[in-house]
Design goal:
mainly alpha, 0% strand, globular
Amino acid sequence: MENGGTPAPATVEEQSVPAYSWYALGVLVLVYVLNFVDRQILSILANDIKADLQVDDAYLGFLYGTAFAIFYALFGIPLGKLADSWKRVRLMTIGLALWSVMTALSGFARNGTALTFARIGVGVGEATASPSAYSLISDWFPARLRATALAIYSSGLYLGGGISLLIGGAIVDGWNTAYPDGGPLDLAGWHVAFIAVGAPGLLLALWVMTLREPVRGAIDGIPTPGDPRPFKGFFEELYQIIPPFTVIGAARRGIGGLALNLAGAVFFAVAAYLLSIYVHAGTGSIIAAVSDQWLFLAVGYYAVFSWATALRARDLPTFRLTWGSPAFLCTILGYGIVAFVSYACSYWGAPYAERVFMVDKTDLGWWLGAPAAVAGFLGVIAGGRMADFLFVRFAAGRLYVVLFGLIAPLPIIWVSYTTSSVVVFYIFAALTQFLAASALGAAAATSQALVLPRMRGVATATFFLATTLVGLALGPFMAGWVSATNGDDLSHGVLSTMWAVPIGLICLLVAIRLVPLSAATVRERAAAAGEAD
């Protein structure tokens, strides 16, 4: 007995997992599958959108990556805070309904601007999913199985991405065959595909609403009472991250805080301007998508900078264990580079095969989408199990799996985008998915191990900043931009993303050295920063 009669928490060996935890995990996997169906379906629709809306590969990369990623990342922060203080099941239900509606509305877009705004809405809705899910899973499963559980949840990413090609290809080919000149309401096949994958999310939201909320932190022996004012923190975070209110928030911290915030705003504005000038010099004209790319990124990075500096002033323990922790930053940035390369490959795979090998969409769904779904599922599960196996033997064992996921796919990607054989492309695309997927569960579990239970939602949101603002916002766009400036050469575009791998390698090697001590001293470092015991 501890603390005057409270039973001591079970040891790692004694903790069992109730059947309900596995059931709830299965529902969360379905949510994440739909999450990525709605997100990844742009891949199979890309060439049709390009033809109908008269846009280029740079815009397609911007639409899939940056337009979605910035708002997904920014709203993920206040929503991560809300996941730390409010009902996570309820939050996920609302978010699922929102992104499903916005996906369906994408099917009524008639120009690039309308489609961009719809995808922004999808990003905001989807930002609720993983902070809520990661926090729930950490309260449903003991530490010894957490990487496995997170890997199973993350398998929805790969299943959804593969299924999106199957569904999207079948719908587009079937609709365009039946209505070659446009169907009812003048909808093309790609319009109908968006509507068809968006609508089922409203039914799934009703199912999610029935899940039971677990006691926060109880499984780790640190039960945390509910916040009596859960939305207070959410609105504070929103106020600190949405420009121009960020300036007011900084001013409240004094002249030093205001000066730092304004200096950050100037820095990101100048960086965006110089990048636009560079792009103008390289292409001979300012492409709208390129201008939007740097504007969105500048706003996004400035907003995150504002939020991080505000977090330091308002919640020093959380800041110290996330932004102030080299171990945490190197872990998430190292995985961010994995995402940088893998997002580019997964998004551009279908458009590349359609253009180079002249494969129709239905065949792409079966021969590219289905194998990729299976390979990604197996890869993330195998990686999670291997991460847990290594974790009980080496303090930094999980990070070796992340390192493997960064390096192992490189020769496979090279062959995929240089081969003249469509069969080789299919096989190697699936193998790439398997190898890259192995890193996700290990990276996610490592980030969760470096913070206290009350910080898990914010830690998850910060983890996803790396996968979105580094991986999703930059990888697909860079590949598309390089393609657009080299005669629509997608092979050249995708292979150009490999330049970032040495950065990820350095980050992960540093993390391997730092994570063991950081994970072992979480409570001590939090207490030193002012965390109440």
